[in-house]
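Something for you to look into today, if you have time. What I am after is a single protein written out in full by you. I want to see for myself how the chain folds. Could you add the entry underneath, on a fresh line?
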Amino acid sequence: MALKPTLYKLTLNLVDMNRDIYLTDKLTLVLHPSETETRMMVRLLAYALNHESDLAFSRGLSATDEPDLWTVQGDGAVHLWIEVGQASAERLRKGVSRADRVRLYAYGSETDIWWNKQGGALSELPKTEIYRFDPAGVDSLAALCSRNMELTLTISEEQIFLSDGEQQAEVSLSRLSQ
């Protein structure tokens, strides 16, 4: 018997001071059975950092031909392809061939090792931006996770602050390429 995904309901109060975005959004996050809550929360950070009206979560880990998030135009053209994790150059080439822009948000304690191995090939990809979340900040995200969440996510320069009213996390973002 296959494991089923877990649904998380979220009210997101987004304050993006870099882009003057202030809104409340109701979302349903789907946690794939092989995904951690931390990875799901990193997908939420990527959603907030790239928020636009057509940005959507894809089928994620269930679909190898889709990114974690994307913006698809009415004619089926992919405007923005977003991956989270430590993707290979081959994986991002798929996005480059299908989308106008590609972004990767790497996270985890082994990101430096991954970047040393993959950074050269990834940096050569056209229309691709690669970012890194600091490991300590990402490790604190799962504590904010619950099946029904109300979170305030504030973006200011390269700092992301996430709070549920009782607990908070701070995550730094740095650019690795482009």
